[in-house]
Amino acid sequence: MSGIQGKVIAITGxxxxxxxxxxxxxxxxxxxxxxGARREDRLNTVVDGITARGGAAEGxxxxxxxxxxxxxxxxxxxxxxxxxxxxxxxAGTMAVSPFDELRQDDWDAMVSTHITGLLNGIGAALPVxxxxxxxxxxxxxxxxxxxxxxxxxxxxxxxxAVKVLTEGLRQEAGxxxxxxxxxxxxxxxxxxxxxxxPEVAAALIQQRDEIAMPPSAVASxxxxxxxxxxxxxxGEIAVRPTxxx
Length: 245
Ligand SMILES: NC(=O)c1ccc[n+]([C@@H]2O[C@H](COP(=O)([O-])OP(=O)(O)OC[C@H]3O[C@@H](n4cnc5c(N)ncnc54)[C@H](OP(=O)(O)O)[C@@H]3O)[C@@H](O)[C@H]2O)c1
Known about the structure:
This protein has 245 residues and is of the alpha/beta class. It has helices spanning 17-28, 40-52, 67-81, 104-132, 153-173, 198-211, 215-227, and strands spanning 8-12, 32-37, 56-61, 86-89, 135-140, 177-184, 236-239.
């Protein structure tokens, strides 16, 4: 199956930002969506918006750090549509801080959301893709994995792990599966600065408002990787604002 039309696509972190924009982009092109996130009200708003425009979407309350939640997300795709073509692992948290602030809960959240969360998605979707003899993982990394900037070391380390896990998975995927890393730069979302200390948050939000690209830019990159013909695996896309160093 080529293109986006008719594909069954699950997206984590679909209640706002890049995930929400990706859901809208793919729905407009005829994908059938299963959308996961924790905030029920925000998720419902995204699902309702898509269905009001004639698209197909279902919401599932998912915390990616819980293995059984990812299982529920992929099971919903199978129950509702009989298959799963793509899992977009996008859920993330950017609660960055200097080490001296010792915000260890935030460090743990970044590790569990980006690393355990990604692994939980692989654990849930890989057996489905193997059975179908087709499927695509799209993992959302970050340009922070390429250029480490203070005070983003923990965030950058977890996104480096996303990059490494994606490459390892690609090597083991074999001829039937596709594995894609999409690494956004500064993107205008509510997640920038969220959970960070007031000083760091203010600096990030100011920079976001000066240079960030819209989340639709990342959604287009994800759509591009998905719409390629079956035998074409877009391994990696970095997409950043021109103004980003
Ligand atoms: N914005 C940027 O500049 C930028 C740059 C590079 C990479 N990224 C990456 O892009 C991804 C999306 O971020 P964004 O910028 O769009 O920020 P965002 O608007 O805050 O979106 C983050 C999404 O992840 C979800 N999420 C967080 N923790 C979760 C968990 N444990 N389980 C399930 N869902 C969870 C949030 O939903 P709930 O709170 O409802 O669960 C939300 O839908 C992240 O992986 C981020 O690291 C962003």
